[in-house]
Write a structure and sequence with these properties.
The protein is an alpha/beta fold and 242 residues long. The protein has eight helices and seven strands. Strand 1, helix 1 and strand 2 form a beta-alpha-beta unit. The relative contact order is 0.16.
Length: 242
């Protein structure tokens, strides 16, 4: 019923411990598969994934080349998944998989009430350096003000949604930063769930500030345009008879 999708680039050191943490949740949530998407890694990531795959039956490995970015790798993983509900998280070990349990409870509560919903994890205490905290906080405030998505931490990779809802969204590079706004545009409600965040203990961060700033501004303008061009989804239709 549940697929965990993890996009990675050069995270060989984090593969084994994170897969073990995710797999340990199988007795608490209906976890059926863990889908790792290697985004053109140049280190030992693929070899390590194959090694863990030989001993962990839930692990599936998808490789894409050349490197195409987090949004593309996430889309590839969701498309390759086989379960109706997907949850995404980063492969650097900073997202605590334990948060999936609480998110699933909220998701099922809303789903059983007949609602289409995406659960957005919100980092209760972000374990990053000051530059990342300040730049992320500033970007989140600007994005939330312009898009009015009601989410204070859209940068948290822990998100849970219906696979079909996600794949129906308009795809573009960097879309992972705007999932709440895109889901709202598609008629999907957003529920927030506090999750733990941890310091990076292995590997090297791929995060950059200046190299994302201008791209983020362009994307923000594009998403605002999509919102403005959205049409009401409550249409009256009928089947025509010959």
């Amino acid at each position: 019923m549940l697929s965990v999708v993890v996009p990675v680039h050069n995270e060989a050191e984090n593969i084994a411990p994170l897969v073990a943490e995710i797999a340990a949740l199988k007795n608490r949530v209906p976890l059926m598969e863990i889908v790792y998407v290697d985004d053109g890694s140049t280190d030992n990531t693929i070899a390590e994934l194959k090694r863990i795959q030989s001993i962990e039956p839930m692990l599936r490995v998808v490789a894409q080349t050349p490197r195409s970015g987090q949004s593309c790798a996430t889309w590839t993983g969701v498309a390759a998944s086989t379960q109706p509900i997907c949850v995404t998280l980063d492969g650097d070990g900073q997202n605590d998989p334990e948060g999936i349990v609480g998110m699933f409870g909220v998701f099922m509560e809303r789903a059983n009430a007949g609602h289409r919903v995406m659960i957005a994890g919100q980092r209760a205490k972000r374990e990053d350096n000051l530059v990342r905290k300040i730049s992320s906080r500033t970007a989140n405030r600007i994005r939330s003000w312009i898009l009015n998505d009601g989410v204070s931490d859209t940068g948290c990779a822990l998100k849970m949604f219906r696979r079909d809802d996600y794949l129906a969204l308009p795809y573009f590079n960097h879309m992972h930063r705007f999932l709440p706004a895109l889901m709202i545009r598609a008629g999907v409600a957003i529920a927030l769930c506090p999750v733990k965040h941890r310091p990076r203990t292995r590997g090297t961060s791929k995060y950059g500030v200046m190299n994302r700033l201008w791209v983020g501004i362009v994307d923000l303008i594009g998403v605002r345009w999509l919102q403005a061009r959205a049409k009401p989804v409550h249409l009256v239709t009928r089947e025509e008879k010959a």
